[in-house]
């Protein structure tokens, strides 16, 4: 298990049984758990940026689910949260060992999520093209560095 300040990354291929409309289905999921100081703000960012829906929510976490992946935005402990200062705009934490990468339908939807809920996406002129994707780095509302990529229509 790898812990990075604010992001607790558990990236795994799993087969899980989920109940949907009273039918059991097997669904391969990629899962990411992000520990956040402000669960609501971080949850709203990932919902909009990745097109995820809230499947479950309580005072400690939101479970966000998409077609092939899920993101859990989990509150960090109050004692630890008091020691964390999130700047405005948040300072990007680029000195971590991991960077989640998400394939998205449209990078401009991610930009809109960053504008609405906090976070950042580099300007499109800084994008690069690789293996059939247009790729940009960004960060969530608490400064966790993320990479987003969309299919390159020119490839």
Radius of gyration, in Å, reads 16 Å
Shape: globular
Percent of residues in helices comes to 10-25%
Number of domains: 1
- Return residue spans where pLDDT drops below 50 for at least 5 consecutive residues: 1-5, 7-23
In whole angstroms, the N-to-C terminal distance is 37 Å
Order of SSEs, N→C? EEEEHEEEHEHEEEE
What is the helix tally?
Answer: 3
User: Architecture in CATH?
Assistant: Roll
Question: Top keywords for this entry?
Answer:
2,3-Dihydroxybiphenyl 1,2-Dioxygenase, domain 1; 155 residues; disordered N terminus; globular; single chain
Describe the fold and architecture:
The chain is α+β, with helices and mostly antiparallel strands. The chain has one domain: 2,3-Dihydroxybiphenyl 1,2-Dioxygenase, domain 1. It has helices at residues 39-50, 78-81, 107-117; strands spanning 2-4, 7-9, 13-20, 23-36, 53-58, 61-65, 69-75, 101-103, 120-121, 128-130, 133-139, 145-151. The strands form two sheets. Strands 1, 2, 3, 4, 5, 6 and 7 form a seven-stranded mixed β-sheet that branches. Strands 8, 9, 10, 11 and 12 form a five-stranded mixed β-sheet that branches. Helix 1 (39-50) runs antiparallel to helix 3 (107-117). The termini are far apart. Residues 1-5 and 7-23 have low confidence and may be disordered.
């Amino acid at each position: 298990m790898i812990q990075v300040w604010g992001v607790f990354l558990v990236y795994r291929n799993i087969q899980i049984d989920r109940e949907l409309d009273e039918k059991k289905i097997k669904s391969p999921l990629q899962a990411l758990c992000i520990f956040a100081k402000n669960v609501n703000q971080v949850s709203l960012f990932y919902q909009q940026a990745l097109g995820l829906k809230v499947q479950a929510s309580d005072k400690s976490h939101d479970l966000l689910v998409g077609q092939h992946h899920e993101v859990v935005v989990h509150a960090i402990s109050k004692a630890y949260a008091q020691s964390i200062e999130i700047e405005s705009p948040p300072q990007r934490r680029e000195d971590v060992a991991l960077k989640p990468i998400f394939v998205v339908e449209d990078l401009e939807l991610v930009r809109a999520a960053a504008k609405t809920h906090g976070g950042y996406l580099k300007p499109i002129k800084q994008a690069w093209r690789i293996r059939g994707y247009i790729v940009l780095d960004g960060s969530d509302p608490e400064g966790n560095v993320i990479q987003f990529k969309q299919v390159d229509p020119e490839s």
